[in-house]
Write a structure and sequence with these properties.
This protein is α/β, with parallel strands linked by helices. It has helices at 2-5, 33-49, 61-67, 88-91, 111-114, 124-130, 164-167, 170-173, 178-189, 236-248, 298-311, 323-326; strands spanning 6-8, 15-21, 54-58, 76-80, 94-98, 101-108, 139-146, 152-154, 159-163, 193-197, 215-218, 222-226, 258-262, 268-269, 275-276, 284-285, 289-294, 316-321, 337-340.
């Protein structure tokens, strides 16, 4: 593989832990703080019960310990840290391998194109390095380039799936062209094959079409994607165009992808009548378990779980109610970021 043998690591590969950040008083979550903390409790309980380790950032250790006193504490490490918001997917470190050694890449984060304050979020990875949570010799400063974890998907074999709307947005990297961006992505992530999705946007999404709301790469040249079968839904035409483009995509060896359509949740609205970006594509893959967001819609929630099993037949699927996360325009994948084995301090989860 070219580009100094750099390889962008797939989400389903061996992980050390999942990085999360607890909502706190004084943040955008204030108006539903109790409700969203219950949601975080549910997610962390589900992860730790499945023997997935969680590295939890918080503003107040005592409050975090009280909230999570009943979870499996051997699978939980709590770290006090400064941050603006809870979407660790987008400011957490991105894993690559170079010459079989793990590297933790710290890209710049500017609040999804200068929409929200991100000054503290943008320093989280540096704090994790300085606290020796991320091994300092694995840390790499890539902060001159804005890149959010939710905006990229990989198969771990040199292919990158992303959206034109997000990466080419002028408020991220000065409106660089696709060719310029492709060269940077190749150089820094080692990817050789870039699939640019030009269609797909969910009402209420303020990320400029993050790929993890629309289409997800899976093993065996499979892509799971958000479909829409309701001709009266505002998403119908856009998602139809997205599906048509996915059908045209080819693997590095020239084969079409195996496409698996996820259902579109029934519309969810906030108290002002604005539609929220509910999507089943926003799931988290760990080595043995997939954590799927649920939206209180029994038939579709179950169908989404059954559908993702097509691509991951060996995985268990655990569903967690994520309606509270929708109210700040995110879901389960946005709230989590996998930290891979080899660049997290190996003594973190060792209890004396």
């Amino acid at each position: 593989m070219s580009h100094h043998k750099i390889r962008l690591v797939a989400e389903w590969e061996h992980q050390e832990c999942i990085l999360m950040a607890l909502p706190f008083s004084g943040s955008d979550w204030d108006y539903i703080l109790t409700e969203v903390l219950e949601c975080y409790h549910s997610i962390i309980s589900a992860l730790t019960a499945a023997d997935v380790k969680v590295l939890l950032l918080c503003r107040c250790r005592k409050e975090a310990e009280e909230l999570l006193s009943d979870v499996r504490l051997e699978n939980l490490v709590i770290v006090e840290c400064e941050y603006n918001d809870t979407w660790t997917r987008d400011y957490g470190p991105i894993a690559v391998e170079r010459m079989e050694r793990k590297r933790s890449l710290d890209f710049g984060f500017n609040g999804w194109g200068l929409k929200f304050a991100a000054d503290k979020d943008n320093l989280v990875n540096l704090q994790l390095r300085d606290k020796y949570i991320i091994e300092p010799d694995c840390y790499r400063n890539e902060r001159d380039f804005i890149l959010e974890g939710g905006s990229i998907e990989t198969d771990g074999r040199g292919t990158l799936l992303t959206t034109t709307r997000c990466l080419c947005s002028p408020n991220r990297n000065g409106g660089k062209s696709k060719d310029e961006l492709a060269e940077i992505l190749r150089e820094r992530l080692g990817v050789e094959h870039i699939l640019w999705l030009d269609y797909g946007a969910l009402a209420g999404d303020d990320t400029d079409s993050h790929i993890d709301t629309l289409a997800r790469m899976a093993p065996e040249d499979t892509i799971l994607y958000t479909g829409c079968r309701d001709i009266d839904d505002e998403h119908f035409e856009e998602l139809l165009k997205m599906r048509a483009q996915l059908m045209l995509f080819r693997t590095m060896s020239g084969e079409p992808y195996n496409l698996v359509e996820l259902p579109m949740p029934d519309a969810v609205f906030d108290e002002d009548g604005h539609r929220l970006p509910a999507t089943y594509a926003n799931y988290l893959v760990t080595e043995r378990v997939i954590f799927m967001p649920g939206y209180g819609q029994p038939a579709k929630d179950v169908l989404a779980c059954q559908t993702v099993r097509i691509a991951y037949p060996g995985h268990e699927v655990v569903q967690v109610n994520c309606i509270p996360l929708l109210k700040q325009h995110g879901s389960l994948h946005c709230a989590t970021m996998q930290l891979h084995e080899g660049w997290v301090n190996g003594t973190l989860f060792l209890k004396s």
